[in-house]
Amino acid sequence: MNDEAHWRTAGDRIQTLLDASAAGGPTARERAEQLVCEVTDLYGAGLARLLEIAAERDPEVRDQCVADDLVASLLLVHGLHPHDVGRRVGDALDKVRPYLGSHGGDVELLEIRGATVRLRFTGSCKSCPSSAVTLELTVEDALRTAAPEISEIQVIAAEPNPSPTVIPAETLLSRVHADDHGGTSWHPVPDLADLHNGEVGGFMVAGTTVLACRIGDELFAYHDRCGSCDASLAGAALHRRMGAAIGGPVLRCPRCRAHFDVIHGGAAVDADAGPEVHLDPIPLLVRDGVLSMAVQPTPTAVM
Question: Which domain of life does this protein belong to (predicted)?
């Protein structure tokens, strides 16, 4: 894990240590929390003094500090960030727009009301549930980093796709929008990046067996369960259906021979399959330079 990702998760490690201190009783935890507060206040005061001194020498230093994600996060913790929430939300969206554009999409900021941000996605990504989920998670991740005071991000749905074989993106997002108690969390999965074009592999992530495959430059991940026969997908491979265009492979279940479109949310493509038959996608996202997967641990078959 790179340095940026390491420091970004420091808050979680501090909270874990505080929770562990509770084993010594209420007094021990209270003293541990007081110690963290004292250290935080001390470094906050020092950071404020440093900014004042640096700004006196060069007024552009403040903008350079704000442009650094790690420094900006510390400024937010100590209430020293010079930009209001509107500016920070706008800057965060500008940062991710090149990535959205690479997927044929964009995002429009509709309004900020209190602690709620309302957005609308546009572009060709609306036709691909997997892509839409990835882009929405990318934007959410950027906004919560830049504006932690935002408590709700509302995405205004685009026009419904008339095709009955496309899985609604809202269905896929329900997994990663679970509550914090036993819900979804992000896990680094750098090994997935080693898959070759057309290769399918099984991985164990947070106790959950997942199936991942690469098609060109894109990686896709699914829970290890066939949407048709409910069996494990161990041994599944990518195939090109007869008459299909080049570059459009599908995943075939090795047991019931059902075919699924891994690019478009795992929708079943067999003529006798209904829209309710599909694989269960798992979002993938590069967070702080590390390929990560949003997994809600569930019992699955072992590959």
Answer: Bacteria
Share of the chain residues as helix, strand and coil, in percent rounded to the nearest 5: 40, 25, 35
Separation of alpha carbons 68 and 87, rounded Å: 15
CATH number, domain containing residue 153: 3.30.300.130
Residues 148-192: tens digit of each pLDDT: 888 888 887 655 554 444 555 555 555 555 444 345 677 889 889
Q: At what angle do helices 169-176 and 129-146 cross, to 10 degrees?
A: 40
How far is C-alpha 200 from the chain's CA centre? 22
How far apart are the C-alpha atoms of 184 and 229, rounded to whole Å?
A: 25
Task: Report pTM.
Answer: 0.62
Its domain, for residue 283, covers: 185-295
Which amino acid, residue 117?
A: V
Rounded to whole angstroms, the maximal C-alpha distance in the chain is: 72
Structure tokens at 45: 């005061």
Q: What is the pLDDT of residue 165?
A: 47
